[in-house]
Write a structure and sequence with these properties.
mainly alpha; 3 helices; rod-shaped
Length: about 180
């Protein structure tokens, strides 16, 4: 190749190395034109269809991705709503449980107070009955002691009805003084 470049420089003709011969140039232009026409008729439309199909497929996948993104965002929104609803429901249930516990506590307190009042009432009734019994027992003892004392003093025996009348009269006078 180097020898051809040196030969072109010595000759002064540039047709051999850089520019083809005019006949070859004409055949090259005709072959290129025929090749271009064949490619334009057969390959370029097919290539255009492939590129259009590819662009349509990409566009379809992008639309599908957008639809899936929208669906995912909607699912996320529904999920967050259900979480919020669940939290609200849990709070409501807890509040109801607290209210029920307070109601049960108040009811138990009322029952306990009513029971305590009944126990106190019964105890007071028992105390009153015991006091009355003790008073009756004291009356009988006081009566018998006073009869014995009176009989010793008077040196005579009192009958039971006289004795009871004296004791009751004495107790009545003591009760009215107090």
């Amino acid at each position: 190749m180097m020898t051809q470049i040196l030969a072109v420089e010595a000759d002064g003709s540039a047709y051999g190395v850089i520019l083809p011969a005019p006949g070859e140039l004409l055949y090259g232009v005709i072959a290129f034109t025929i090749l271009f026409i064949v490619l334009a008729k057969l390959a370029f439309p097919a290539l255009g269809r492939v590129l259009d199909d590819r662009a349509a497929a990409i566009q379809g996948k992008m639309e599908e991705a957008d639809a899936k993104l929208t669906d995912a965002e909607e699912a996320k929104r529904r999920y967050e709503e259900s979480i919020a609803d669940a939290k609200g429901e849990a709070g409501r249930i807890i509040e109801e449980a607290k209210e029920q516990a307070d109601a049960l506590r108040a009811e138990a307190r009322e029952r306990a107070e009513a029971e305590a009042a009944q126990i106190i009432e019964r105890a007071q009734a028992d105390v009153a009955a015991e006091r009355d019994r003790a008073i009756q027992e004291l009356r009988s003892q006081v009566g018998s002691i006073s009869v014995e004392l009176a009989s010793r003093i008077v040196e005579r025996e009192l009958d039971q009805s006289t004795h009871a009348a004296l004791v009751d009269d004495y107790i009545e006078r003591l009760s009215s003084q107090n």
